[in-house]
């Protein structure tokens, strides 16, 4: 091992759940969408990706470890390269804060190889936007490592977008839009923009029902390419539906109007899954358990005489249920009633677990939801997460490292 120093930083990044969905690419090379989308950034206390990035002249090649396992050939992967090289191009001089001495000149970062080690605190590729958190954490860790500076606001999100489209929205907290762009030849205007930060509507809550934690059948990338090629409904959606919904949902979020926010969220999830069914051959992301959750939540809202819960499903069977602080225990208790506890740590948050177990559901509500045909069965839902909206990526300075600072080799074990 040569004596060249190893520079190292660790960042965490959140996942996000779209309420107006991105589905379909306008330009595969730049990874840009056919329509705008918007999402809620989830709290990293519950779900996050944690990534350590190290750079050194002593490293022989770029290397990547995901959840403790090395990914062979990662350095040639187009998405990985776009993120690493994209941030490297914005590097600045690294200066010793005490002496003012330049330790690394900005042009010298590129001469080094990088080692990256990343893990998720939630199931990978189960439709819980793990790629969004993963690429956002990669861009964030690289940013902190090389002291990168944006040349225009939102530039880092254009880099994360090339890792995974939805990752661009994970670079900000709260409620975040991805403007599709397209006026610039290099698509530098296809970027994320924060609509409101995580403190704007602090009462928003999410309950996530993990219907399956296995890897999904059709990846988003291949699914959306078949949809673009075959679905008339997707064309109609991009041309005539999404821009109106974007305007309405951003307004609803800013006005804290849960009725409109929830209605648009559910309608857009349903339309996204309708475009999947309209794809030829069709793609099925929701299963019968997912659909039973939809029926129960509609029955719940109807019983309440107001919209108290709103579901949304990404490219997988898991339900993300948005609600408000004042109803979240009722929503959680209702879900626990129909999808009873299964195994240890069924409920991510023990305090929330105690509250929903103690909550007495209204008899009328049980009557109303029973009519959906659902009877309580354990095992079809593997886990319940309780979470809220949270901030964008964080620099972790408290010595949480996934790489050994002396050797640059992975230390993370699942
Ligand atoms: C259904 O961002 O995973 O979650 O850009 O090909 O990596 P790539 O796709 P990805 O697609 C996410 C699709 C979605 C909707 C959304 O998050 O907007």
From TrEMBL:
The EC category is lyase
Show the GO cellular component annotation of the record: chloroplast; cytosol
User: What family does the database annotate?
Assistant: Belongs to the diphosphomevalonate decarboxylase family.
Q: Which GO terms describe its molecular function?
A: ATP binding; diphosphomevalonate decarboxylase activity
Q: Which UniProt keywords apply?
A: ATP-binding, Cholesterol biosynthesis, Cholesterol metabolism, Lipid biosynthesis, Lipid metabolism, Lyase, Nucleotide-binding, Steroid biosynthesis, Steroid metabolism, Sterol biosynthesis, Sterol metabolism
- Functional description taken from the UniProt entry: Catalyzes the ATP dependent decarboxylation of (R)-5-diphosphomevalonate to form isopentenyl diphosphate (IPP). Functions in the mevalonate (MVA) pathway leading to isopentenyl diphosphate (IPP), a key precursor for the biosynthesis of isoprenoids and sterol synthesis.
Subcellular localization is given as:
Plastid, Chloroplast
Q: What is this protein called?
A: Diphosphomevalonate decarboxylase
- The EC number of this protein is 4.1.1.33
Domain named Mvd1 C-terminal is located at 206-395
Q: Give the reaction(s) catalysed.
A: (R)-5-diphosphomevalonate + ATP = isopentenyl diphosphate + ADP + phosphate + CO2
> Which Gene3D superfamilies does the entry link to?
3.30.230.10, GHMP kinase, C-terminal domain (3.30.70.890)
Q: Any stretches that span the bilayer, and where are they?
A: none
Pathway involvement of the protein, from the record? Steroid biosynthesis; cholesterol biosynthesis
Lipid biosynthesis: present as a keyword of the record?
yes
The residues covered by the Diphosphomevalonate decarboxylase-like N-terminal domain are 13-191
GO BP annotations of the record are: cholesterol biosynthetic process; isopentenyl diphosphate biosynthetic process, mevalonate pathway
Q: What is its main location?
A: plastid
């Amino acid at each position: 091992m040569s004596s060249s120093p190893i520079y190292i930083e660790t960042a965490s990044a959140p996942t996000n759940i779209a309420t107006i969905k991105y589905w379909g690419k306008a330009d595969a090379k730049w990874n840009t969408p056919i329509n705008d989308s918007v999402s809620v950034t989830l709290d990293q206390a519950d779900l996050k990706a944690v990534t350590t990035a190290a750079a050194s002249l002593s490293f022989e090649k770029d290397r990547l470890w995901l959840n403790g396992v090395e990914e062979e050939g990662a350095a040639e992967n187009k998405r990985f390269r776009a993120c690493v090289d994209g941030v490297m191009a914005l590097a600045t001089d690294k200066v010793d804060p005490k002496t003012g001495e330049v330790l690394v000149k900005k042009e010298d970062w590129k001469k080094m190889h990088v080692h990256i080690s990343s893990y998720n605190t939630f199931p990978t590729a189960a439709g819980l936007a793990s790629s969004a958190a993963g690429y956002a954490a990669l861009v964030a860790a690289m940013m902190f490592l090389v002291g990168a500076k944006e040349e225009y606001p939102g530039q880092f999100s254009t880099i994360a977008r090339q890792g995974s489209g939805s990752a661009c929205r994970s670079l900000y907290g709260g409620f975040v839009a991805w403007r599709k762009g397209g006026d610039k030849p290099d698509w530098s205007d296809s970027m994320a923009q924060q609509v409101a930060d995580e403190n704007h509507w602090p009462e928003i809550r999410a309950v996530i029902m993990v219907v399956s934690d296995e890897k999904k059948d059709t990846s988003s990338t291949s699914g959306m390419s078949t949809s673009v090629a075959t679905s008339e409904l997707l064309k109609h959606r991009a041309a005539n539906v999404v821009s109106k919904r974007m305007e309405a949902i951003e307004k609803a979020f800013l006005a804290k109007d849960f009725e409109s926010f929830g209605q648009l969220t559910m309608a857009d999830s349903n339309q996204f899954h309708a475009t999947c069914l309209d794809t030829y051959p069709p793609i099925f992301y929701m299963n019968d358990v997912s659909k039973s959750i939809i029926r129960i939540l509609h029955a719940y809202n109807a019983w309440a005489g107001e919209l108290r819960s709103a579901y949304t499903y990404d490219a997988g069977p898991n339900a993300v249920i948005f609600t408000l602080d004042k109803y979240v225990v009722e929503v959680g208790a209702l879900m626990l009633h129909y999808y009873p506890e299964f195994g240890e740590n069924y409920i991510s948050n023990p305090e929330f677990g105690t509250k929903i177990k103690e909550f007495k559901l209204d008899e009328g509500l049980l009557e109303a939801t029973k009519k959906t045909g659902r009877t309580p069965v354990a095992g079809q839902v593997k886990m319940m997460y309780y979470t809220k909206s949270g901030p964008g990526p964080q620099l972790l300075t408290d010595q949480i490292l996934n790489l050994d600072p002396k050797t640059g080799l992975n230390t993370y074990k699942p």
